[in-house]
């Protein structure tokens, strides 16, 4: 791959969970031609960093991104015109990464998607994504724009712009998100704060003697993802905070879903109280592997992660 100058890729669009968006129009291009176009294919949401609306891609590396979309929760349209880091994208495609199959055999593969994330507040993040791997390559700030309801959709009922916004908010935004916005407002800075990286590690304690039996899989609140080899699992690393984890022990496995805001608030507090200190997420595996609890620790301070959802099963 290191000698290749072109790579086959597709493009996907994503938005934060429960904050849906919909594309109006756009494209990825290079200096000579448009490579792939974006059109409305319905509402996009899901997990931040993992696209669910797929578009045709290309083989040449894009240099320009253009997108206009509606953020239903905010009742507004956004637009981005950005120059992509061509050399960085090409270098990452060439570098690729190592992947282990079900037989335990490692092979050198590379990314297969350019994923564009669109968050409230106009934050735009671009990742290269592949099998069990996602890495941020750029982020941008979009500007608010105007698209009339008549231009955006057929508008058979001749809704006014405000009626269109209100109707879309009620029909497209989940009830839980509507309630959260009513009480707290839209957390427009949250996904930019998720991009902050901390020096930390997981420290796992077992009721009986045990160890991790396979490589650990982690997703992060900034949309990145990786597989960490067992031999490196206990080391401190500068990375984004976890949103999801798969842990494999000798007899049982754990699937963990973290609450992003809870983890972020815990790390903000503990890093403020202990500046420049390494932080641990302590995991305690309970008797008979009934569950695993997680606590953020630094020196003598501990903050339990009480909203973490853990599923344990026998392997």
UniProtKB/TrEMBL annotation:
<dbReference type="Pfam" id="PF11153">
    <property type="entry name" value="DUF2931"/>
</dbReference>
<dbReference type="InterPro" id="IPR021326">
    <property type="entry name" value="DUF2931"/>
</dbReference>
<protein>
    <submittedName>
        <fullName>DUF2931 family protein</fullName>
    </submittedName>
</protein>
């Amino acid at each position: 791959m290191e000698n290749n100058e072109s790579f086959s890729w597709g493009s996907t669009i994503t938005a934060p969970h429960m904050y849906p968006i919909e594309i109006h129009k756009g494209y990825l291009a290079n200096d000579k031609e448009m490579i792939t176009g974006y059109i409305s294919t319905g509402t996009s949401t899901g997990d931040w960093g993992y696209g669910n609306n797929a578009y045709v891609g290309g083989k040449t590396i894009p240099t320009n991104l253009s997108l206009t979309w509606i953020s239903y929760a905010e009742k507004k349209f956004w637009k981005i015109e950005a120059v992509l880091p061509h050399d960085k994208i090409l270098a990452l495609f060439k570098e690729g990464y190592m992947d282990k199959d079900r037989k335990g055999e490692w092979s050198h593969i590379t990314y297969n998607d350019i994923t564009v994330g669109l968050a409230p507040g106009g934050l735009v993040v671009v990742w290269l994504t592949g099998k069990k791997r996602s890495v941020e390559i750029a982020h941008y700030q979009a500007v608010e724009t105007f698209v009339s309801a008549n231009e955006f959709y057929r508008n058979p009922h001749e809704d006014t712009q405000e009626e269109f916004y209100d109707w879309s908010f009620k029909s497209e935004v989940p009830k839980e998100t509507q309630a959260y916005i009513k009480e707290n407002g839209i957390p427009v800075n949250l996904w930019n704060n998720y991009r902050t990286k901390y020096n930390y590690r997981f420290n796992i304690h077992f009721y009986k003697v045990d160890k991790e039996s396979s490589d650990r899989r982690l997703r992060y609140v900034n949309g990145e993802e990786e597989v960490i080899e067992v031999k490196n699992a206990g080391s401190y690393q500068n990375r984004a905070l976890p949103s999801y984890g798969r842990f494999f022990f000798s007899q049982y496995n754990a699937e963990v879903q973290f609450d992003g805001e809870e983890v972020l608030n815990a790390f903000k507090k503990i890093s403020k109280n202990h500046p420049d200190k390494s932080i641990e997420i302590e995991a305690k595996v309970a008797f008979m592997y009934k569950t695993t609890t997680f606590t953020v620790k630094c020196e003598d301070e501990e903050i339990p992660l009480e909203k973490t959802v853990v599923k344990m099963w026998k392997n």
